[in-house]
Amino acid sequence: MDLKLKIRHGKAGVVTLLPAGPISNETSSALERQISGLLGEPIRMLVLDLGGVKFISSRGVGAIAKAKAELKKAGADLAITNAQPQVKKVFEIMSLLPSLNVFGDTEELDEYLAKVQRRITEEEE
Fold this sequence. Notes:
By secondary structure, this protein is an alpha/beta fold. It has a single domain (4-124), classed as STAS domain (Transcription Regulator spoIIAA), CATH 3.30.750. It contains four helices and five strands; from the N terminus they run E-E-H-E-H-E-H-E-H. Helix 1 runs parallel beside helix 2. It starts with a strand and ends with a helix.
């Protein structure tokens, strides 16, 4: 099964990537390429909406961890939202939840993003 990747550009440098399908050993490289391509854009936050992902392999988790590191180097951050319970469990098993910004839903993510934007605005003043 293929991994489909949809991108939504939001305000203030927030980009949402919506993968649909498995993030497996075979498809994780497509995710990596897509994220690497986004690093050339002015981005402050990459939101990875995993609502359409029902399976993730260790290599897929590795691709996401690598993306977080690359985004951090570029001065951006990574947030994960809408992870299916089985996908969230993989992150828990691999002890990655504390190091990743994982949100239960879009509302929780929006609250976090509002705080980040207020902080940036205050720093610029």
